[in-house]
């Protein structure tokens, strides 16, 4: 069942060309599970291709990520990588998503934090991304994480040291969380950026329409009760959200869902209570380009069994 | 240039670049552990992003589902432990990869054995009554809204006790000296995406005791709540290698928290539902951190392991020489400078 749904998600619809993010070549495919909700395929295609929610991407040349001196630019495995003396800025060409990572010995890693308050870090990061064109009306708030370090002698307790804060913009569109989107920067002293990720794709407004349909259904007490009772989860508490695929997943997938944190696992359900999955949540065929490590003389010595009892 | 250097490194006799990946999603024989469907995708995400890095790595993958070129059965508990230290079973060849072949092992599955004290505290001096199964020392574990006395107890990766194949019922104590990672030119880095990998200031005991030459161990440190078993921590971790093999392995692991989603990858660091205003998510249901630990004979040597990149970490000549000093880095899903995780 799972693979059928995933296949439907991946294959439905045709690629749209969102007008709001022409620079990065992103194809906002309108993937969704077909449910026979009354729209013809043509209607759906028209709807999907008209009026995308605007996205945002960060070209390397506009980023403040600390690259050092640029050594080379190369394209490989779908990425364009700008290689600097202190780090690499990579863009996944087919989505426009980007990730920039410092070298292990980049001089800025030894710097202290940009600020000693998470709030100040949040403000600086928000100002940075908004200044680069990220739609301000899609920013609900800014979230912070903290990097803490200890150096300690055996059997002694060290003193914590703040190394850095990283701040992430939290995306909301028309009141619905789009939590898979990312605009994150880790700042070091002087405002140097040690880590940056931007994955803020445009997507079809149909996802918002679907989210509204779920919300509307849940506002009806009778339908809500029936719907929640149908969910195969221990808890029924959840939120209506827009979910989308990762920065180098292909094809692009976006859907509206009722999201439930079920024990240790986040699960997504469509308007009809069917569980749906993002590409990252499905077991995938792992590329096996290497060879098996020859330390295992027999399957048993590897901690495995060769046949199922 | 980078790939040429990496090829040179991996061709040296003192360097191993093998990978072991373990993903356990199904726990039919351990009723205390619900199935966690994202554990296998998490492990596979690590491996598939790793190969975007375009370098050849010998590998072995253990998932509890069938697949091509995959050891499909569950991983044995004893594979974490060294018989030379008195452990049962058939040896730690798969996890520790001794003999210079291995570089990194990655586990995604349950962790178990967390004994809550249900004691509130203001400081560690308040925590003097260890419950059964725990011992002193203790720590007062804090968030912005909670406190709990935590007492020393082991870290337990929890594989499934499938078909009588396990020696320890699937629950492995890696803190009692039987885990011996890095011995005989074994692995240089181990990562365990699991519940209760360690707790504040218990890391020397819980993880340090498993270190014998290994450069770095990374795991999850829930402070309030638990790990969220998400599908993308492994992928986010390996993405950093894929785009920049010259980045730090240790930083890549802790920085995967920054790359994960706050609201799609866990629940809030709050006792109010859906209130992420102070933090949360990013692979944690509640408040927690991604943590890495390194040990060596001096503080400088321990810190140096934190800046080993994905090529350098393969070098056996850089194996840890001792455990006199520890270096610990953590990225936490809230402002742990404003609200420290211990007192």
Determine the structural class of chain A based on helices, strands and strand pairing: alpha+beta
Helix and strand pattern of chain A: HHEEEEEHEEEEEEHHEEEE
Report on the biggest sheet of chain A: 9 strands, antiparallel
Helix residue percentage of chain B: 10-25%
How big is the Rg of chain A? 23 Å
Shape descriptor of chain A: globular
Average the pLDDT over all residues of chain A and give the rounded result.
80
Strand content of chain A: 25-35%
Provide an overview of this structure:
- The complex is a heterodimer of chains A (309) and B (343).
- Chain A is of the alpha+beta class.
- Chain A is built from five helices and 15 strands.
- In chain A, strands 2, 3, 4, 5, 6, 7, 8, 9 and 10 form a nine-stranded antiparallel β-sheet that branches. Chain A has a four-stranded antiparallel β-sheet with strand order 12-13-14-15. A two-stranded antiparallel sheet of chain A has the order 1-11.
- Chain B is an alpha/beta fold and 343 residues long.
- A seven-stranded mixed β-sheet of chain B has the order 2-1-3-8-9-10-11.
- In chain B, helix 2 packs parallel to helix 5 and helix 5 packs across helix 6 (249-259).
What is the topology?
The complex is a heterodimer of chains A (309) and B (343).
Chain A: H1 2-11, H2 41-49, E1 52-53, E2 70-76, E3 79-84, E4 87-92, E5 98-102, H3 118-131, E6 139-153, E7 161-173, E8 176-177, E9 182-187, E10 193-199, E11 203-204, H4 206-219, H5 221-230, E12 238-244, E13 254-262, E14 265-269, E15 275-276
Chain B: H1 2-11, E1 18-23, H2 39-52, E2 59-63, H3 93-96, E3 102-108, E4 110-112, E5 135-142, E6 147-152, E7 156-158, E8 189-193, H4 203-206, E9 216-227, H5 233-243, H6 249-259, E10 284-296, H7 299-306, E11 325-332
Parallel strand pairs in B: 1-2, 1-3, 3-8, 8-9
Antiparallel strand pairs in B: 4-7, 5-6, 9-10, 10-11
């Amino acid at each position: 069942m799972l693979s059928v749904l995933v296949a439907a998600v991946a294959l439905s619809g045709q690629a749209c060309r969102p007008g709001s993010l022409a620079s990065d070549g992103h194809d906002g495919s309108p993937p969704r599970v077909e449910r026979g909700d009354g729209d013809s395929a043509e209607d759906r295609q028209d709807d999907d291709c008209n009026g995308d929610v605007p996205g945002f991407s960060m070209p390397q040349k506009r980023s403040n990520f600390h690259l050092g001196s640029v050594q080379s630019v190369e394209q490989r495995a779908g990425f364009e990588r700008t290689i600097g003396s202190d780090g690499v800025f990579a863009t996944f060409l087919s989505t426009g998503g980007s990730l920039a990572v410092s070298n292990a010995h980049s001089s800025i890693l030894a710097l202290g934090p940009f600020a000693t308050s998470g709030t100040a870090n949040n403000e600086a990061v928000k100002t940075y991304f908004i200044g680069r064109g990220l739609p301000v009306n899609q920013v609900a708030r800014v979230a912070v994480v903290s990097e803490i370090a200890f150096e300690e002698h055996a059997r002694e307790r060290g003193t914590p040291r703040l190394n850095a804060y990283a701040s992430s913009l939290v995306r909301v569109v028309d009141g619905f969380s789009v939590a898979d989107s990312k605009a994150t920067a880790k700042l070091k002293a002087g405002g140097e950026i040690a880590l940056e990720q931007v994955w803020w794709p445009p997507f079809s407004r149909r996802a918002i329409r679907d989210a509204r349909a779920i919300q509307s259904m849940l506002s009806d007490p009778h339908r809500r009760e029936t719907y929640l009772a149908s969910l195969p989860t221990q808890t029924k508490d959840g939120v209506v959200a827009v979910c989308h695929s990762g920065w180098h997943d292909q094809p692009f997938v976006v859907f509206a869902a009722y999201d439930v944190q079920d024990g240790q696992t986040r699960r997504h359900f469509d308007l009809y209570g069917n569980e749906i999955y993002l590409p990252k949540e499905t077991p995938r065929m792992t590329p096996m380009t290497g060879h098996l490590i020859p330390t295992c003389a027999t399957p048993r010595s590897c901690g495995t069994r060769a046949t199922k009892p | 240039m980078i790939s040429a250097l990496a090829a040179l490194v991996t061709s040296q006799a003192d360097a191993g670049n093998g990978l072991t990946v373990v993903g356990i999603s199904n726990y039919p024989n351990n009723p205390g552990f619900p199935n966690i469907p994202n554990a296998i995708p998490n492990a596979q995400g690590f491996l598939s992003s790793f190969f975007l890095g375009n370098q050849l790595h010998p590998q072995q993958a253990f998932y509890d589902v069938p697949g091509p070129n995959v050891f499909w059965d569950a991983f044995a508990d004893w594979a974490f432990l060294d018989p030379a230290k008195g452990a049962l079973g058939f040896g730690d060849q798969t996890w520790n990869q001794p003999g210079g072949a291995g570089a990194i092992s990655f586990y995604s599955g349950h962790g178990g054995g967390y004994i809550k004290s249900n004691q509130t505290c203001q400081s560690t001096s308040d925590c003097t009554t260890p419950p059964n199964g725990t011992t002193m020392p203790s720590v007062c574990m804090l968030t912005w809204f909670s406190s709990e006395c935590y007492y020393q107890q082991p870290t337990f990766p929890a594989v499934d006790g499938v078909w009588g194949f396990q020696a320890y019922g699937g629950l492995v104590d890696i803190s009692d000296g039987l885990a011996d990672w890095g011995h005989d030119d074994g692995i240089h880095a181990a990562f365990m995406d699991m519940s209760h990998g360690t707790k504040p200031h218990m890391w020397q005991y819980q993880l340090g005791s498993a270190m014998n030459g290994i450069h770095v161990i990374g795991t999850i440190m829930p402070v309030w709540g638990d790990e969220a078993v998400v599908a993308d921590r492994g992928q986010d971790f390996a993405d950093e290698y894929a785009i920049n093999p010259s980045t730090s392995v240790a930083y890549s692991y802790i920085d995967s928290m920054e790359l994960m989603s706050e609201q799609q990858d866990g629940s809030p660091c709050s006792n109010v539902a859906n209130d992420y205003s102070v933090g949360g998510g990013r692979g944690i249901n509640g408040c927690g951190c991604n943590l890495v630990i390194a040990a060596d004979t001096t503080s400088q040597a321990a810190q140096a392991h934190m800046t080993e990149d994905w090529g350098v970490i393969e070098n056996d000549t850089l194996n840890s020489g001792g455990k006199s000093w520890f270096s610990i880095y953590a990225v936490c899903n809230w402002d742990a400078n404003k609200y420290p995780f211990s007192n």
